[in-house]
Write a structure and sequence with these properties.
The protein is α/β, with parallel strands linked by helices and 328 residues long. It has three domains: 107 residues, Winged helix-like DNA-binding domain superfamily/Winged helix DNA-binding domain (Arc Repressor Mutant, subunit A), CATH 1.10.10; 99 residues, D-Maltodextrin-Binding Protein, domain 2; 93 residues, D-Maltodextrin-Binding Protein, domain 2 (3-Layer(aba) Sandwich), CATH 3.40.190.10. The protein is 42% helix and 19% strand. It is built from twelve helices and twelve strands. Helix 6 links the parallel strand 3 and strand 4. The relative contact order is 0.13.
Length: 328
């Protein structure tokens, strides 16, 4: 068939003259690989050799493509398969799409920190962010200068969804209830200390349990009610402290300590940086310290993904390097 005659003959098909609605979820992407091969090689025989498929398989794929777009796509002129205008219109977008898909698949198999421009999203509560993000961001940027680090507040009740959808790549938090398909690992342990203002009339160089129970406290929690780890430790021995103020953020609580006689019990990991500018003193919690461990969470589907593995390794190493020193 003469292509010029086909293109201009009365009644011939006008490519895309009527918009087509195609459900992409029902389209086999291999059909477009075949389209590219026939377009490049100029015939079914050489396309079959290029793709290592039989000629009937190539012909069958071409027939399905023709039905999909309602166009011959290629017409025979002698021994060559000549593209129709519809094939010419398709080949550019098809090649770009195939290249993008191939590139995405290849990126899943490898991760080069030195060249990656990926954005890593890490779920952190405010107190975790203030204590870990400065050192972590410095470490990540040193090895991967083009990556973006995003710290985001996360909903503990929606942990699985945020990790499964890629909204978050990882989460750093305290021990949370076990969630199916979410992997976790202990990052570092921690002790509790008590922040007290300089010159407190009731607290000297040491803090005993009796004084701790007599003085009023400020407590930080994202929950509206309920005990903290220190309260549970006290309750096991039959004690209860007096909480005068309950707030959401440790920085607010530290400011209250600096301007009042309230005591604040908080993780040692965050206490130094949070209280240094305020001049508050830090004293040991007067009981065997309850666990205040940090854990790393990620979706099980990301176990072997190179970029996520690299991120997790950097987080683990960073927190290990910045573990608080043991008190004398």
């Amino acid at each position: 068939m003469n292509f010029a005659r086909y293109r201009h003959a009365p009644g011939a098909f006008a490519p895309f003259s009527v918009p087509l609605v195609v459900n992409v979820s029902r389209v086999d992407l291999n059909l477009f690989v075949v389209l590219d091969a026939i377009y490049t090689e100029g015939g079914i025989t050489r396309a079959s050799e290029r793709l290592n498929l039989t000629q009937p398989a190539i012909s069958h794929a071409l027939a399905r493509l023709r039905e999909l777009v309602d166009d011959p796509l290629f017409v025979r002129e002698g021994h060559a398969m000549v593209p129709t205008p519809a094939a010419h219109a398709l080949i550019g977008p098809v090649r770009r799409a195939l290249k993008e898909i191939e590139g995405s698949l290849n990126r899943l198999k490898q991760f080069d920190p030195a060249t990656s421009t990926r954005a890593f999203r890490i779920g952190m509560r405010h107190i975790v962010e203030s204590a870990t993000l400065p050192a972590l961001a410095q470490r990540l940027r040193a090895q991967a200068p083009h990556v973006q680090i995003v710290s985001a507040h996360h909903d503990r009740d929606a942990l699985h969804g945020a990790l499964a959808t890629g909204e978050l790549d990882a989460v750093i938090d305290v021990l949370l209830p076990r969630v199916q398909h979410v992997s976790y690992q202990l990052l570092a342990g921690g002790r509790m200390v008590v922040a007290v203002r300089a010159g407190h009339p009731r607290v000297g160089d040491t803090l005993d349990l009796a004084t701790y129970l007599e003085v009023e406290h400020v407590m930080t929690s994202s929950r509206r009610s309920g005990p903290g780890l220190e309260d549970l430790a006290l309750q096991r021995l039959g004690h209860e402290r007096r909480v005068a103020v309950r707030c959401q953020h440790h920085w607010t609580a530290c400011q209250l300590v600096a301007s009042s006689d309230l005591l604040l019990t908080m993780p040692e990991r965050y206490a130094g940086s949070a209280n240094a500018a305020l001049g508050n003193r830090l004293l040991p919690f007067p009981l065997a310290t309850p666990a205040n461990d940090l854990y790393l969470y990620w979706h099980a589907n990301a176990d072997a993904e190179p970029g996520n593995r690299w991120l997790r390794e950097q987080i683990r190493n960073c927190l290990a390097d910045h573990e608080p020193a043991e008190s004398a």
